[in-house]
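Ops channel
N.P.: pipeline sanity check, posting one input/output pair.
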């Protein structure tokens, strides 16, 4: 992971001696049918789109980027099923987008605590046996190292009814059994507990500081040892099976690709206008292809404009203050970020995390911003502009008065960066 420079977006007109540089980060990361009663624990969707909702809580990319749980016309009714099963309070938040099951027309939707499975032949949605899927990928030992016992594959039953009775008789740990039975949808209802968690797949087993029992769709740990920072003895916790599926690398990378918050979008028309502006200026025309395929949106929970490389795609955060600016200012910011993407693409080796690399990238990006703004508005910039446009006016003025202005700002900025 290679962090790149960051700072707060300035509010007032930036001056060379005391101002702050536009914040930019570049990080290189090599990241049975459901018929339960509806729960009021999850907030309802918006009035304009009652059939879907955007969630960023478990995306790992901040408030502005996440995944949508939706009812698809003629396809999976994931949002309805999600609501019927209690929403995030019961199943957790989505950890990826829905994706097709290899070799079938079915679709999975991974959540923190579960995996919803849409069956294309029946149109029904069930909770998948997540831990069995991880086993099937040859990761039994991997699970054990994460505190999940191996599954007992032969319980001795000759019919499903016999196997069910045998496996329910494995509920011998009082704390785990109580937790299993007191499910959050209908506490004390055994059938709902089996619906949510499946049948036991192991006996209770001591692993490290807890007793743990594995089920088809979850595992429960009753903590025994008192360890600072961990649950107190007697506490029962649920292992998040969907998170395990993600950690195991069994979710396709395209499904992990986050989406910008649809409530604060950078509209396709705006992006097209930005690309045309950049393509129309010699100083930025070469940079346009480096924005191809990038996921661009506003991130209200971050203080910095940023870019993340994740696999083969790029996630670009825009500072929320830029929402109030003009499209030309946003284009200038994206041009700055594109210089980082260009440097990474053209470099024969991975970019080294160092103050020198930081200074080179920041200075180059600042010069492109200033040159782009001057090409649009001339040597005085845009008259009486506000917000980041006013910052860009300052860049233009200083580029004409002081040849080393960008290097000076980059030196200040990168000297305080974390490496």
């Amino acid at each position: 992971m290679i962090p790149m420079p960051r700072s707060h977006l300035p509010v007032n007109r930036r001056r060379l001696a005391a101002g702050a540089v536009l914040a930019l980060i570049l990080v290189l990361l090599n990241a049975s049918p459901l018929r339960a009663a509806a729960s009021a624990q999850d907030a309802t969707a918006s009035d304009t789109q009652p059939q879907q909702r955007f969630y960023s809580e478990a995306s790992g990319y901040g408030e502005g980027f996440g995944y949508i749980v939706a009812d698809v016309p003629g396809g999976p009714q994931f949002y309805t099923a999600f609501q019927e099963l209690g929403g995030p309070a019961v199943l957790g938040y989505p950890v990826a987008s829905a994706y097709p099951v290899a070799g079938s027309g079915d679709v999975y939707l991974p959540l923190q605590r579960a995996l919803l499975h849409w069956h294309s032949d029946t149109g029904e949605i069930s909770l998948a046996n997540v831990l069995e899927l991880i086993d099937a990928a040859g990761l039994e030992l991997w699970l054990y190292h994460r505190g999940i016992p191996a599954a007992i594959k032969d319980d001795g039953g000759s019919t499903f009814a016999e196997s069910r009775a045998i496996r329910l008789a494995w509920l011998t740990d009082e704390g785990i059994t109580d937790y299993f039975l007191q499910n959050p949808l209908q506490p004390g209802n055994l059938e709902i507990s089996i619906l949510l968690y499946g049948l036991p797949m192991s006996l209770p087993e001591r692993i490290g500081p807890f007793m743990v029992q594995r089920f088809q769709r979850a595992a429960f740990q009753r903590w025994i040892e008192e360890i600072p920072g961990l649950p107190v003895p007697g506490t029962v916790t649920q292992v998040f099976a969907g998170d395990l599926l993600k950690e195991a690398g069994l979710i396709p990378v395209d499904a992990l690709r986050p989406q910008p918050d649809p409530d604060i979008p950078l509209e396709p028309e705006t992006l097209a206008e930005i690309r045309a502006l950049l393509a129309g200026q010699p100083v930025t025309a070469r940079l346009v292809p480096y924005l191809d395929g990038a996921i661009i949106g506003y991130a209200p929970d971050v203080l910095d404009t940023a870019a993340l490389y994740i696999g083969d795609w790029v996630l670009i955060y825009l500072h929320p203050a830029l929402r109030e600016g003009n499209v030309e200012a946003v284009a200038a910011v994206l041009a700055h970020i594109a210089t980082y993407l260009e440097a990474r693409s053209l470099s024969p080796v991975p970019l080294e995390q160092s103050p020198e690399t930081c200074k080179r990238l920041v200075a180059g990006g600042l010069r492109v911003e200033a040159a782009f703004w001057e090409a649009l508005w001339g040597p005085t910039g845009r008259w009486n502009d506000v917000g980041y446009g006013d910052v860009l006016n300052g860049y233009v003025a200083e580029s004409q008065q002081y040849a080393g202005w960008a290097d000076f700002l980059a030196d200040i900025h990168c000297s305080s960066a974390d490496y």
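N.P.: looks fine end to end. Residues 1-48 have pLDDT under 50 and may be disordered.
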